[in-house]
C-alpha cells in the first residue's frame, strides 16, 4: 500500500509511525509515497525519514492537491483542524481512503461539510477512520460494552475532564506573515484549532457520546482566560451537557500550568459507577460475557490496524458521523461559554436554523490561505458572555 501524509508536524509524524506500525502488524508492505505541508521544509523533513524523494514532498497551502495527484491508497490528514473539511473533501473526491485527526472542523458549517463528505465516502466504498482513539482502545471498549449491557444500570449522570497544562505557544517572528504565524501558533487561535474544548477535550466528549449512545441536547456553561500568552482562546471551560431524560454530564477542561490535572471520564448509574477505561463498581453483580476486543491495547495503532484491514478485506468502515458529532458537541459547549446562552443541538446541525452560531464561520478559512495573504484575528479581542 502507498500512503500520503498531509500535515507533517508533530502529529503528522506520530500518526505516520502508527500507520506503519499497523501495517507491519498486518504483514502489509506499506510505503510513504508523498508528503505535503504548508512549509515545504517540514514535508521534506518527514519525507527524508522514509525515503520520499523531494519531488514528492510538496510545500504550500495547495500542497495537498499535488499530493492527491499521486498514486495513493491511504491519506493521513494531520493539519490544523481549520483545514480538515477542505482536505477531507478533496481526498474523498480523489477516491482515497482516509485517516483524519480530530477535531474535524472549527465551526458548525465546516462540521456539516465533513458530515456530507463522509456520506459521499460511503457511497464510494471508501474507509474513513478518525483520531478519536479511545473508541479503538481495549480498556475503553471493554468498559463501554459492559455499561451498554447494563453493568451499572441506566446512566444517571457523569463528569468528563481534560485538565492539564498549557500547550506550546509561538511568538511572532520579525516580518513573519500572518499565514505563517497562524499555522505555527495554531493551538492558540480559535479560528485554527476551535479552542481547546474542541481540539483536545473532544476526546472526552466523544466518550460521553459513545457511552450515552447519542450527542447532547443542549449545553450551557462558562469559561475564561487568565494565563494565555498569544492567540484569542480561553484557558478554561465548565459546561453542563444535557443528554435528555434528566441526564447531565459535566464537562471540565483547562490549560493552565501548576494546577491539579485529570484527563478521564466518570459515569454514575442506577446500579453502580465506572471510569471510562476501568474501575467498574457494581452494587449488584451482573454476569456479562465480554467479547474479544482488539489484539493491541494502544488505541492509536489499533485505529490504523482497523483502517488498513478494512481496505484489505474490502469491507469499508466509516467513523465520520461519530467524530463529527463529538466535534459539534464541543462546538456547542464552546458557543455556550463564549455567549453565555443556552445552545441547542438542533441549532448546530440544521443548516437552515436561524441561530447566529449555526452559521458562524471562522476566518481566515482554509480557502483563504490558498488565495494569498490572510487577515490576523485580533489577539486582544476575547469573547465576552452576554455581549453580541
Q: Report the total helices.
A: 14
Biggest beta sheet attributes: 8 strands, mixed
- As laid out across the biggest beta sheet, the strand order is 13-12-11-7-10-9-8-14
Structural class: alpha/beta
Molecular shape: globular
Beginning-to-end CA distance, first to last residue: 51 Å
Q: How many domains in all?
A: 2
CATH superfamily of the largest domain: Dihydrodipicolinate Reductase, domain 2
Q: Which runs of at least 5 residues are low in confidence (pLDDT < 50)?
A: none
- CATH C-level of the largest domain: Alpha Beta
Helix content: 25-40%
Number of strands: 14
What fraction of the residues are assigned to beta strands by DSSP?
A: 15-25%
**What is the CATH architecture assignment of the largest domain?**
2-Layer Sandwich
- The Cα radius of gyration reads 21 Å
Which features would summarize this protein structure in a list?
Dihydrodipicolinate Reductase, domain 2; Rossmann fold; 36% helix; 20% strand; alpha/beta; 388 residues
